[in-house]
Amino acid sequence: MKPLRFILAAVILASLTACSVTRHRPYSVESTRLNLAMSDLEYVGETEISVDYRQYIGFIPVIDSINGTAYDGVEIKSARIGNAPAGLYGKLNRAAYKLVEDFPEAEYFLVVSQDKTITRLFLGSDIKVKARVKAYKFK
Question: How far apart are CA 46 and CA 73, in angstroms?
Fold first, then answer.
């Protein structure tokens, strides 16, 4: 009977330790900061990107042209510039590939201005989105 009690106690202790809560704490910093001044950057150039599209019933988008070229939907190019608050409007990510093609040596893109023009139509809207972007590279 005694060995059975020891085995039963060992099984209970093993099951209790398997259900214990462990905490994982990373030993790295939560954020990294890089301080740059404009003197650290060299101006490469400036360009404008644009997307013209229609939106039906408020949620069905149909892209007409990207950067002045008719959009056929066969070849999809896109790039992401910036984070959510300082980044581009949603559809402008489709036009941002022009920045990488025009300035392949650039390492930093600064969105100078964005313009969104909406023409309301019956059960839809015609939307034109433009952005001016400056390109810089590190010295």
Answer: 27
- What are the distances in angstroms from CA 122 to CA 56, 60, 103? 9, 14, 40
Fill in the amino acid letter for 113.
Answer: S
The residue type of 34 is L
Question: Pairing state of beta strands 41-56 and 69-70?
Answer: unpaired
Strand ranges inside the chain, DSSP E? 41-56, 60-66, 69-70, 108-121, 124-138
Give dist(CA 135, CA 51) in Å, integer.
19
SS3 21: coil
Distance between CA 87 and CA 104 in Å, rounded? 19
Give the whole-angstrom CA distance, residue 81 versus residue 20: 44
Distance (Å, whole) CA 28 – CA 86: 26
Q: The whole model's pTM is what?
A: 0.69
pLDDT of 43-82, one tens digit each? 999 999 999 999 999 889 999 999 999 999 898 888 887 6
